Amino acid sequence: MAGDEETPSAGAAAPAKVRLAAFLAAGLIRGLRTTVRLRFHGDEEVRALEREDRRFLLAFWHRHLLFMPFAYRGRRISVLVSRSRDGELISRAIGWLGIATARGSSSRGGAMGLRALLQQARQGYDIAFTPDGPRGPRGVVQPGVVLAARSTGWPVVPAAWAASRSWQLRSWDAMLVPKPGATVHVVFGPAWVVTRENEAGAAAELKRRLDEAFAEAEHWARGAGSPGAVG
């Protein structure tokens, strides 16, 4: 997920500040959600998985993090979040939105974070990944998501969203924020399973599927309708 510095919060007052900032951030996200319309595309398969309480791994680019909590309708899900000050803020904010977290990253605590995430998976959580997190490069799949998919044997569901009107932040991930009154189109690609036979090319395949899902979401957001099946 996010994080520019892999250091703990500094100062005795930092935890209280982080808690307050996270609470306010979650409130702003909830408030923004009330001003937009959500439209889902290709969600029949993921809704069936949720309805039948079958576990899966949800994957989406880091820039789509903001509205993904509203795309999930299962019982409970956990996502890997950086062990950083920014990661602490994100972890607490999405906690207010009902999302659990495991702490770790590709640069520090990654193995520990992945083990914690897999432990939560064994406890009945679905798991989510931003494959290019916590610090990029943007749009490049890191190995953790492939390891998790191979370890669990769960289907990977790629997802992306685009809005009819949005801001693009000047962050490393070019995070997207829908503008009030926009229509947000969430696209789910077909689920697929990482096996021993396809593991070597799984990162490239996941990138292709995520990019195609985003391209379809942008197509819907431009009012052009569906460009065809994803995946």
Brief description of this entry?
By secondary structure, the protein is an alpha/beta fold. Helices cover 36% and strands 18% of the residues.
Write down the overall mean pLDDT: 88
Helix/strand/pairing category? alpha/beta
State the end-to-end CA separation.
24 Å
Oligomer: single chain
In total, the number of domains comes to 1
**Main sheet summary:** 7 strands, mixed
What does this molecule look like?
- The protein is of the alpha/beta class.
- The chain has six helices and nine strands.
- The chain has a seven-stranded mixed β-sheet, with helices on both faces.
- Helix 1 packs across helix 3 (85-96) and helix 4 (110-122) packs parallel to helix 5 (143-152).
- The longest helix is centred in the first third of the chain and has 20 residues, at 14-33.
Write the layout of secondary structure elements.
Blueprint: H1 14-33, E1 37-41, H2 44-51, E2 57-59, E3 77-81, H3 85-96, E4 100-103, H4 110-122, E5 126-129, H5 143-152, E6 156-163, E7 166-168, E8 176-178, E9 183-188, H6 202-221
Parallel strand pairs: 1-9, 2-5, 2-6, 3-4, 3-5
Antiparallel strand pairs: 6-9, 7-8
Keywords summarizing the entry:
alpha/beta; seven-stranded mixed sheet; two-stranded antiparallel ribbon; 36% helix; 18% strand
